[in-house]
UniProtKB/TrEMBL annotation:
Binding residues for [3Fe-4S] cluster: 297, 316, 319
Taxonomic lineage: Bacteria, Pseudomonadati, Campylobacterota, Epsilonproteobacteria, Campylobacterales
Keyword annotations from UniProtKB, A to Z: 3Fe-4S, 4Fe-4S, Iron, Iron-sulfur, Metal-binding, Oxidoreductase, Signal
Domain Cytochrome-c3 hydrogenase C-terminal: 249-331
One Pfam family matching this protein: Oxidored_q6
Subcellular compartments: Cell envelope
Name of the featured protein: [Ni-Fe] hydrogenase, small subunit
GO biological-process terms attached to the record: anaerobic respiration
Species the sequence originates in: Arcobacter venerupis
Domain NADH:ubiquinone oxidoreductase-like 20kDa subunit: 83-229
Gene name of the record: hydA
UniProt key word Flavoprotein: no
UniProt xrefs under InterPro entries: Cytochrome-c3_hydrogenase_C (IPR027394), NADH_UbQ_OxRdtase-like_20kDa (IPR006137), NiFe-Hase_small_C_sf (IPR037148), NiFe_Hase_small_N_sf (IPR037024), NiFe_hydrogenase_ssu (IPR001821), TAT_signal (IPR006311)
Binding residues for [4Fe-4S] cluster 2: 254, 257, 282, 288
């Protein structure tokens, strides 16, 4: 066990524990118990989060403590140009998980979907929360932000303030800033070509570091895990080239896919519903973007952690990658090695998230395309070449 780190986190949690409860009449642990979550269930959940954050299992009690103290840190959650899907996926599940229940009871000082206030009162609540908790609150933003001369495409409230202005003001005094979902992380569908509203990522409207938690929507565990990482450490996690936490987005979908063995064996679904589909073959030829996408979907899954798109029979659409609406489509056709508009100009479809080793990844990606193209001639089950 890393004794120094354990002691450092223990000290930080003790300091947070000294902060006053923002909702004095209830605690996260008591509310979870009311919802039927036993202490055993809670500790099992804490163990899974500990593993996801790549900490030794001996740190599980610290992670549990961090979750219980999450109501000591105020959170301001802003909605920009989006569908509210990230909030809905986290908070509106028909069988709430511990992750979503925790978000029910943390101190959400401002959240347009959840709060009862409207009109001038909502505007006042936002301004009051920023001033009251200046330098202490965590800012979470959902949605792309119409920017610059296009900022008027998103105005908020009776004062006519733009979403860009609200985001800048909230970011200025935040202790930490999280972009929740692909729209806030990269601009999302709003920023897709031709981007008529000039939507941009949250990181474009502030000079402060923004931790991106992309996905359409992102896993609730990635949202809660990012929050708990900040509570545990008080610092930013290790980030990749696109400011995504490496503990969540450090592995390609392709590398942790349950169908990877079929890819290596040259066994592909040629069209939906064929024998390959029934046998769980690789979905690359029907558009799976797993080789180009960094996320932990296969571990976290969706729908109360029961399944995920590839398990259900549809390929990954690359929703946690920058510009995926433009670069990953058509969603049911393979990328192969065609060129598209990315930050890696001219390097083709197989240049991926980490700038270090781009050449190697490109060669690997071309190999993927070639492997897929020749597989039907090299499949040993066909008995021919």
């Amino acid at each position: 066990m890393n004794t120094e780190l354990f002691e450092k986190i223990t000290y930080r949690l003790k300091e947070i524990e000294k902060l006053p409860k923002l909702e004095s009449e209830k605690t996260i642990s008591s509310e979870l118990e009311k919802k039927g979550v036993t202490r055993r269930d809670f500790m099992k959940w804490a163990g899974s989060i500990t593993a996801m954050l790549m900490l030794p299992m001996s740190f599980t009690p610290l992670v549990a403590k961090a979750a219980e103290l999450a109501d000591r840190l105020p959170i301001i959650w802003l909605h920009m140009a989006e569908c509210t899907g990230c909030s809905e996926s986290l908070l509106r599940t028909d069988s709430p998980t511990i992750d979503s229940l925790i978000f029910d009871y943390i101190s959400l000082e401002y959240h347009e979907t959840l709060m009862a206030a409207a009109g001038w009162q909502a505007e006042y609540n936002l301004e009051h929360a920023i001033q009251k908790h200046k330098g202490q609150y965590i800012l979470m933003v959902e949605g792309g932000i119409p920017y610059g001369e296009n900022a008027h495409f998103l105005t908020v409230g009776g004062q006519g303030k733009t979403g860009e202005e609200n985001a800048k003001e909230a970011a200025e005094h935040a202790a930490a800033i999280f972009a929740i979902g692909t729209c806030s992380s990269y601009g999302g569908v709003q920023a897709a070509i031709p981007n008529p509203t000039g939507a941009v990522a949250l990181s474009k409207v502030t000079n402060k570091t923004v931790i991106n938690v992309p996905g359409c929507p992102p896993s609730e565990k990635n949202i809660v895990g990012t929050l708990l990482h900040y509570i545990l450490y008080g610092t930013l996690p290790a980030l990749d080239a696109y400011n995504r936490p490496k503990w969540a987005y450090g592995t390609r979908i392709h590398d942790a896919c349950e169908r990877r063995g079929h890819f290596d064996a040259g066994e592909f679904v040629e069209e939906f519903g064929d024998e390959g589909a029934k046998n769980g073959y690789c979905l690359y030829k029907v558009g799976c973007k797993g080789p180009y996408t960094f996320n932990n979907c296969s571990k976290n899954k969706f729908n109360s952690h029961t399944s995920w798109p590839i398990q259900a029979g549809h390929g990954c659409i690359g929703c946690s990658e920058p510009g995926f609406w433009d670069t990953m489509g058509p969603f049911e056709e393979p990328v192969a090695n065609r060129l598209y508009d990315t930050v890696f100009k001219g390097l083709g479809a197989d240049a991926t998230a980490d700038k270090i080793g781009v050449g190697l990844l490109t060669v690997t990606g071309i190999g993927i395309a070639v492997h897929a193209a020749i597989s039907k001639y090299k499949n040993p089950k066909d008995g021919q070449e």
